[in-house]
Amino acid sequence: MKKRMYRSTAVKNVKLESVLEAIGDLPVIIGVDIAKEDMFATVEVDTKPVITVRWKHPYETTVFVEMLLVFLTRGSVEVVMEPSGTYGDAVRAMLDRVGVPVFRVNPKRCHDAAEVYDGVPSLHDAKSATILCKLHRDGASEAWPMRSEHERRLAAILRVLEVHTKELHRNCNRLEGLLARHWPELTHHLDLRTATLLELLMAYGGPQAVASDEEAARALMRRVGGRYLAAEKIDAVVGEASRSVGVPQLDEERELVIRVASEARRAQTLARVVRRRVERMSESEGATKHLAPVVGKTTAAVMVAALGDPRAYESQREKQWQEKGRAARNQARSRHCTAVPVPRGPPPAATGSCGPCLVPQESATPGRHRQVQGCRCHHAKARAGAVVGGRWRGVRQLEDVRHDAPQTLCGDLTR
Q1: What is the pLDDT of residues 163-189, one digit of tens each?
Q2: Residue 400: what pLDDT?
Q3: CA gap 6, 47 in Å, rounded
Q4: How many CB atoms lie within 10 A of CB 123?
Q5: Which of 42, 120, 139, 409 has CA atoms 20 to 30 A from the CA of 350?
Q6: What is the tens place of the pLDDT at every residue in 2-42?
Q7: 3-class SS string, the chain
Q8: Cα separation of 132 and 112, whole Å?
Q9: For residues 129 and 309, which has the higher predicted lDDT (pLDDT)?
Q10: pLDDT bucket at 319, cuts 50 / 70 / 90
C-alpha cells in the first residue's frame, strides 16, 4: 500500500491552480465525511482521488463551498455524504443554495466497504470521504435534495407535540404512583388522562379534601366532565373519598399531587392545541392533504414528516403503470365516472387510484368499484361501502410504495 495515501490538506492551504489543472473539464465527485467540527472531503476525477481537504466547521465551511464554486465553472460537480444526523444539514443547505447537487450513501455501505477498498478494515475520516466517492461512482447513492417547507413545518410541529405528549405521560406516571398510595379507588372510576381527574386533583389534591367539600367537588366534576361523565361515577368518586383505604396525606404530600396534576393538565392542554394545528396543516397542502382521508390527519403528518412525499419515491414499473392508468382514466371518463377502474394484475400493492385518494380500485366496471368520500362518481351504487374496504388496501399500498407502487396520490397517476 502506498504510504500517506490519505494525507489531507487544510482547505485554506489548497493550491487551486494545480487542482484545476488535474481536474480539467472532467466531472468532479466530492465525498464529504461529516462531523461536528473536523470535516474531510476528497476530490475525485476519473476514478482517481486528486486531493483530500480538511476544514473546521462552521468557520471554514464558506471557504470549502467557494472552492466548489470554482470547480463548478469548469464542469459538473456532485457531492456525496452520509446522513449523519443534523451535523451535515448546514453544509447541505449551502450547497443547495449555490446549485450543487447532493447525494447520500447509507453509512452501513461505507462501513462494509472499508476492507474491500484497500484491504484494511479500519475506517477514518479521510478514508471515509474517499470510499464515498467510489460508492457514488458505483451507483450506490441516491439524490438528497432539501426537504420542502411543508415537510419541515410538519417535522417541527410534530416535535413540539412530542415534547408536550411526553411531559403528559411522565406526569401521569407520577400521578399513578401517588394515587396508588393515597387514593387507590380513584383510578377505578376515572382514567388518569381524563380532564376531570386532573382538574379534581388540581383543586383538592387528595380524598380528605374532597370529603370535606363534597358539593363543590360534585359541581367541579359536572362542569369539567359535562354530559360525558355519568352521575353514577361522580357519586362513586365523592362517596369513596371519605372511606378511602389510602395513606392519609400530609400537607406537603397533598401539594406534590396538586403540582404534578397541574403540570399534567398544562401539558395535556398544550398537546391538544398543537394536535389541532397539526390537523389543520395536514388539510392545507402537500401529500398530507390527500393521505389524510385514508390514514387520518395526524398519521398522514407523521408519515410525510418521517418519510417524505410518497410521490417522490420511484418505481421500476412506474412508467408502465402510468400508461395503464391513463388508459383507464380515459375509459372512466367515457362512462361519466372520475374514478380509475384499473384492471386486476401486478403489482398487488397498487392497482390504480381513485380521484383524490390513495385507495386502489379493482373492478373494471363502473358501479361496482369501491369508492371513498369525495369521489364524484355518478353511479349511486358505487357510493355505498365507501371507506370500509379501502382503508386497509390503502395502507398496504403505502407500505409498498417504495418498491413497487407508482405515483398514486391525488390522481397524479395519469397526469
Answers
A1: 999 999 999 999 999 999 999 999 999
A2: 43
A3: 15
A4: 15
A5: 139
A6: 544 788 999 999 999 999 999 988 999 999 999 999 999 99
A7: CCCCCCCCEEHHHCCHHHHHHHHCCCCEEEEEECCCCEEEEEEEECCEEEEEEEEECCCCHHHHHHHHHHHHHHCCEEEEECCCCCCCHHHHHHHHHCCCCEEECCHHHHHHHHHHHHCCCCCCHHHHHHHHHHHHHCCCCEECCCCCHHHHHHHHHHHHHHHHHHHHHHHHHHHHHHHHHHCCCHHHCCCCCCHHHHHHHHHHCCHHHHHHCHHHHHHHHHHHHHHHCCHHHHHHHHHHHCCCCCCCCCHHHHHHHHHHHHHHHHHHHHHHHHHHHHHHHHHHCCCHHHHHHHHCHHHHHHHHHHHCCHHHCCCCCHHHHHHHHHHHHHHHHHCCCCECCCCCCCCCCCCCCECCCCCCCCCCCCCCCCCCCCCCCCCHHHHCCCCCCCHHHHHHHHHCCCCCCCCCCCCHHHC
A8: 12
A9: 129
A10: low
CA–CA gap between residue 298 and residue 279 (Å, rounded): 6
**Can you tell me which residue has the cell 473536523?**
38
- In single-letter form, the type of residue at position 58 comes to P
Tell me the pLDDT tens digit for each residue of 305-315: 988 888 777 66
Q: Residue 337 is placed in which grid cell?
A: 365516472
Q: Is the pLDDT of residue 65 over 70?
A: yes
CA gap 170, 215 in Å, rounded: 31
Query: 327 CB contacts (<8 Å, ≥6 apart)?
Result: none
158: confidence class by pLDDT, cuts 50, 70, 90: very high
Measure CA of the first residue to CA of the last residue in the chain; give whole Å: 55
What is the rounded average pLDDT of the residues 232-259?
94
Q: For residue 178, how many C-alpha atoms fall within 13 Å in the half-sphere facing its CB?
A: 24
Separation between Cα atoms, residue 153 and residue 235, nearest integer Å: 46
State the CB neighbour count (10 A cutoff) for residue 40.
24
Give the whole-angstrom CA distance, residue 233 versus residue 214. 14
